[in-house]
Amino acid sequence: MDTKTIITAAVWATALLACAPATAQKAGGDTRRVYCWEESGRKICGDALPASAVDAPRTEFNARTGLAREQLGRALSSAERAVAAEAARQAALAAEADTARQRRDLAMVESYAAESDLERAYGERITLVDESVKTSQMGVANLRASLLSLLRQAADLELQQQPVRKPLADNILAQHADLLRQQAILQQQLAERSTLDRDLQDALARYRELKQLQAD
């Protein structure tokens, strides 16, 4: 046994002896504790926790049995508490999302009797998105052609050294804004369409797994 171990054992024994009278009076039902913490690089034990050690990491022992009851880390700073609270919030959101996914999966299994029914439902969604994409593409093409026509009118006026009057300028700005808006809608539709095939494959995999679980 090395010197450090001997010193630690002696400190622990002293702490227990200090608690012995109270322990003897409460045999079998004693809930008093012995606290051990580090201070200035030294391990200190006692039956009372000083204010200076309240936020320090410590181990709490049962005064009668000498068994560790609880091990506490240091108190968190306000920034660390904020981080912990945010982590807890994110974990709760993830748990809610997982629960919602499980409900959707169960509803999917109950709604579709066979894989072909599920594929048909996704096929209808794919068709609707494809039609929306075509409509948006036509809208973008028409808006672009209209804007180009207005820009040519403005260019011709400038070439003739005539002013581009406010109604025409306002119309150009409005057409340009409409074109940008329609292009953004088209991009969203294309992004949705690109994920539908993958979503279908994922849904089929979950469907087969849940069907197998029900069969077992």
Description of the structure:
This is DUF4124 domain-containing protein. It is a single chain. By secondary structure, this protein is α+β, with helices and mostly antiparallel strands. The chain folds into three domains: 3-72, no CATH class; 76-111; 114-215. The chain is 70% helix and 10% strand. It has helices spanning 3-25, 78-111, 115-159, 166-215, and strands spanning 33-39, 42-46, 58-62, 68-72. It has a four-stranded antiparallel beta sheet. Strand 3 (58-62) and strand 4 (68-72) form a beta hairpin. Helix 2 (78-111) crosses helix 4 (166-215) and helix 3 (115-159) packs antiparallel against helix 4 (166-215). The radius of gyration is 37 Å and the shape is elongated. The two termini are 59 Å apart.
In short:
This protein is α+β, with helices and mostly antiparallel strands. It is built from four helices and four strands, in the order αββββααα.
Total helices: the number is 4
Largest sheet: 4 strands, antiparallel
Instruction: Tell me the distance between the termini.
Output: 59 Å
Helix fraction bin:
over 70%
Tally the structural domains.
3
- What is the mean predicted local confidence, pLDDT? 78
| Percentage of residues in DSSP E strands | 5-15%
Q: Structural class of the helix and strand makeup?
A: alpha+beta
Strand order of the largest sheet: 2-1-3-4
Strand segment count: 4
Question: What is the string of SSEs from the N terminus onward?
Answer: HEEEEHHH
Shape: elongated
The parts where pLDDT drops under 50 for at least 5 residues are: 1-13, 15-28
CA-based gyration radius: 37 Å
